[in-house]
Amino acid sequence: MNENETILIIDDEVQIRRLLEILLSSNGYNTVFASCGKEGITSAATHHPSLIILDLGLPDIDGQQLLIKLREWYTKPIIVLTVRNSEDDIISALDKGANDYLTKPFRSGELLARIRTAIRLSSEKETSAVFESGSFSIDLVNHVARKNKEIIKLTATEFSLLSLLVKNQGRVLTHQFLLKEIWGYSYLEQTQYLRVFIAQLRKKIEDDPAKPELLITESGIGYRFGN
Questions:
Q1: Which pTM value belongs to this model?
Q2: What residue ranges define each of the domains in the chain, with the CATH number in brackets?
Q3: Which of 27-31, 56-60, 169-173, 199-203 bottoms out in mean pLDDT, i.e. has the lowest?
């Protein structure tokens, strides 16, 4: 059973929401629903779902833009379920952070299989939960960072950026890679975002922000965490 897994459905079609509620509930999932993008963001932040099923045709915001907003902080799987079936829409959604893409009408068995796969892969990524370096530690599952055993207050975006660097310890991550992963493809040229957020993080986690030992700048390329 999947009693510990909650799935958020963001879709304005009542019939689809009813169909998904029956399908998912009968397979042991908890379900939460939102009929527009604004409500979807609020529900994602409130209920911390294990997975989001997202329609692209929403009444208040295009689903492609909602993907960008969600990926500023939401790290769990997102499956797009929509009537749009063009190659451009599929590529754009995947580039913006969708884990999978299905078109309506859909086959119930296929959707369930993709949900199971997405949740399993997401769980496997979280098996190594806690990282420590000197007086700094970060719990990637519970979203808690500490300095000298005191909890550091981080915004959702700051945590997403820091955790991405930590997961790739010692690897240089380019400006473009970081911008794409944290803010989305439309921000690839906005390197000032990185400078601001890296500076904020250094003030919070470094012993001496002017001489960083954790968040290292690779001039003209990007940043890396540690050695």
A1: 0.59
A2: 6-125 (3.40.50.2300), 130-225 (1.10.10.10)
A3: 169-173
